Amino acid sequence: MKTIIIVIVIALIIIVPVTSTYNSIATLNQKVISSSSNIDTQLQRRSDLIPNLVSTVKGYAAQEKDIFTDVANARAKLSGAQGIQEKATADSELSQSLSRLLVVVERYPDLKSNQNFRDLSVALEGSENRISVARQDYNNAVNAYNTSIVKFPSNIVARIFGFTSKPYYKAAEGASEVPKVDFTK
């Protein structure tokens, strides 16, 4: 009888911490997944605003056809992106295209005074801010998760159950460069 009790106590001493650690890692993993989904939601929100913005600008700047094509292509690339790094690259390309579009706006003072354009600009700026917050939340979640799976003793549980590190959301190469806009074409 004592042997059975000792075996049960030893089993509990092993099972309870392993279960607790597994649950903690699983919770952090779900936070990473949720944060990634929030980035997708905010990117989609911005993507949904873009056709309205482009349509408004087109009426004033029909001769800037290349910029509209670039924005449309970048938007399509973002819609089809898979994985966090591909999304980051496509997001960066779209941001650069939008920057070029907004430079075009500077050439048309009547457009800047158009209420519809101003409303869309405010909505787009809000979307950019939400995307920035979503990226930061994702990277914070990844940091917490990745840290938890390398710390002892949770690293043992992580290895046993196949938890692996997650990638951070990083801007694409060249994303920090200011886009070049050439209106001499």
TrEMBL record:
Keywords: Membrane, Transmembrane, Transmembrane helix. It is found in: Membrane. The keyword Transmembrane helix applies. GO terms for cellular component: membrane. It is a single-pass membrane protein. Gene3D superfamilies: LemA-like domain. The keyword Membrane applies. Belongs to the LemA family. This is LemA family protein.
